[in-house]
Amino acid sequence: MGNSDQMANQESVADTLRPLLRAAFGPDPGVAFEFWDGSAIGAAGASYGTLRVRSKEAISHLVWAPGQLGLGRAFVSGTADLDGDIFEMMRALRSSSPHTPGAGIGLGPAAIYQAIGAARRLGALGRPPEPPPEEMRSRSGGLHTRRRDAAAISHHYDVGNDFYRLVLGPSMTYSCARFAGAGEQPDDTMSLADAQRAKHDLICRKLGLDARSGMRLLDVGCGWGSMAIHAAATYDAHVVGVTLSREQAELARKRVAAEGLSDLVEIRLADYRDLRGERFDAISSIGMFEHVGSKRAAEYFTTMHTLLRPQGRLLNHAISSIGGSVMTSRSFVGRYVFPDGELIDVGQVVLAMERAGFEVRDVEGLREHYALTLRGWVANLEQEWDRAVELAGAGRARIWRLYMAASALGFEDGSLGLHQVLGVVPGSAGDSGMPATRRAWG
Length: 442
Fold this sequence. Notes:
Elements: H1 3-10, H2 13-25, E1 31-35, E2 40-41, E3 49-53, H3 57-64, H4 68-77, E4 80-84, H5 86-96, H6 109-122, H7 146-157, H8 161-168, H9 192-206, E5 216-220, H10 226-235, E6 238-243, H11 246-258, E7 265-269, E8 280-286, H12 297-307, E9 308-320, E10 325-326, H13 332-336, E11 342-343, H14 346-355, E12 359-365, H15 367-383, H16 385-392, H17 394-413, E13 417-424
Parallel strand pairs: 1-3, 5-6, 5-8, 6-7, 8-9
Antiparallel strand pairs: 1-2, 3-4, 9-13, 10-11, 12-13
Helix pairs in contact: 2-6, 3-4, 3-6, 4-17, 5-17, 8-16, 9-10, 12-14, 15-17, 16-17
């Protein structure tokens, strides 16, 4: 028997991993750790819940992919799990991490060194474990080419409409809701469906849709058609919705038909770059811009500008981060959630819109609303966990729970933002046709 095997037999897994956990999360993160041999750390004094490490493969994931990707692989594979209030547990682990306080769960240099030593003692330094099958690894073609964008969109959205219905609820809207009731007063007691309806209506009003004139609206990245349906049903708008997801397009068409709006709404399986030679009175871009990328931002806004008539308006609703953030292939979100996704600083969004010829008239931040939205989605997922696993598989369900909870914390602490930026194409004499105040939007 080798020395490493003898040492592993002489001490518990908890004893072996104690230095690693101290280096990664500090002396007292308020979370208990339980291991596959039955040993534990901090079980008696845990305030928030228990992180269960079910096999040494979880340690292998950390050693071969230090940081959030390795941690993510451990959770997606089921070799590690969080048992308790996922929001409080993740907040506690993030805030206790001595090397990146508040920035996320990861491993600093000291923790990586400890992980290698612990893995050697536990016999976990063999060949790297196979990543969970839900991970997107092959990316053919240049960044943000049509083919690669279509593959990235399919990876995220074509995972089953029934799964999304379970998570999102009856509104089938996969973007930040707006929890504001009568008189625009904040109301965190609103249902998700009502808050999504309030968001759609706010966008319609910002875009100046008028039921008396039958305006033509383009909804870029239309999802399952909720915005298109609201605009047509409420404002008699003629809507073209485009998406790269086949499953979204199929269900969106069914929903439009069920609402009796097929004469007003057309859903296309198309790339925004295919929209040439058409004219619209307004464009809504809701949760779409995150997939465009900074290198394509100028092209995107120029395309939107050419599609609008004079005095036409664009509402860009997108997640942002200070200085921008690219979801690389070394990140959990980049591999499992939004391949090739990019969050662009709202200041750069405004500048890109202005350079494309838009007059920017309004910027509104809604990050607290997105935190509430995500908490609602996590609640839906956890409440119907067994059904979610049946529909999409255990790995996919774990991905969504982890990324949505982490994102909610990001919106709560301000590391993530959500902004609606409203621009208008000025008329020939510079007349915007815009009301003088926000109140005039109704």
